[in-house]
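Notes from hallway chat w/ T.B., transcribed later so I don't forget. T.B. wanted the structure written out for a chain they're using in a teaching module, and asked if we could keep both sequence and structure tokens in one place. Agreed to drop them here.
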Amino acid sequence: MASSQGTVIWFEIWVRDAERAKAFYGALFGWSFAPFDGYDPDNYWLIDAGEDAAVNGAVVREPDSAARPSRGTVIYVHVPELDRAVAKVVELGGRVTVPARRITEAGGSFAMVTDFEGNEVGLWMP
């Protein structure tokens, strides 16, 4: 299924205790987990929510959990032109927290932004 602009295409659940989180979500939803070998296999686990899942995601260990609170859950939204979307975020009063970068293993590029309230959102362009 092709994604269109504005479609939520991915989510990440940021946690301090990844093993506890995987046990919790596995028991709650029946999810299974696998390391993302090409990216960060010690801190990033892909969620297998089953073949009927509308959106998949990952559990991510917060790299420095003592330094700041967890990000919580972050959604990623499909955009057709990443640079244009990032510029629009700034125009609307948001800010860029991670500039656009390519993730070769996933076949696309992303940027992280926050809205005017500080909510973090990922922008994804295949």
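Follow-up for T.B.: The first strand starts at residue 8 and ends at 15. Might be a good example for the class.
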